[in-house]
Amino acid sequence: MNATTDAPYTAKRVQELLGLTPSVVRALVAKGFVSPARGPRNELRFTFRDLLLMKTAEGLRRAQVPTRRIVASLQSLRSGLPEDAPLTGLRITSAGADVAVREASGVREATTGQFLLDFEVQVTSGSIVSVADLPTTGAVAPADWFSIGEALESTDPAKAEQAYRQALAENPAHVDALVNLGALMCEHGRCLEATALFDAALAAGTSSALVHFNHAMALEDLGELERAQAAYRAALEIEPAMIDAHYNLALLLERRGDSQGALRHFSAYRRFGGA
User: pTM for the complete prediction?
Assistant: First the structure.
């Protein structure tokens, strides 16, 4: 394939056309949902098919489906598609915080079955969870606050944030609540607050590969590339086989002109099971 003619869209152009953040594009590539080619300067190049797939992701994001849910659902959906699947025949919809696929026989979850795509994104009503009447003391376990936060992300992000903060108030070391809260902030243009949240948690001794990884993505979206690089490395010190960290770090090093470093992490990404 001639990458320049058959895959004419650069990552920057995809971001401009679809309004995707760099972290969303990186996640879709890292999870293997799209497989861009490499251009003459080793830059990522996307096909029209890739563009359509990412347009679906953008539509789901605008429907307030959390980024993590988009990537997970579309990855599962993509894995069930044959390589020669046509791009017509299916309607992808959001149902609350979930992603569903509608076909003639009915609606299925995106994580089941094999489907064809037509990239029409619709919003259907989902159940709304309220935290207004719940107690704000230890009567609700941190895990329950976390579950409430997840359920609220697509319908009421502000209350989802409250729920995640309550989980962290009850258990400051609740990594999943910390990661989801930081990701929620970044998804709503508050990456600076997210980095401050991660900084405070790390300073207090809350450390995991996932925290460092999400910290790195927030820093990268802010343009703090040196700190992002250090955060990716911190994630890999804890979890050397973390393929998403290898992939993102490889792209970052490539962007910063360290082709040898990028090659090492691309190799590690493939060695540990990346596409």
Answer: 0.57
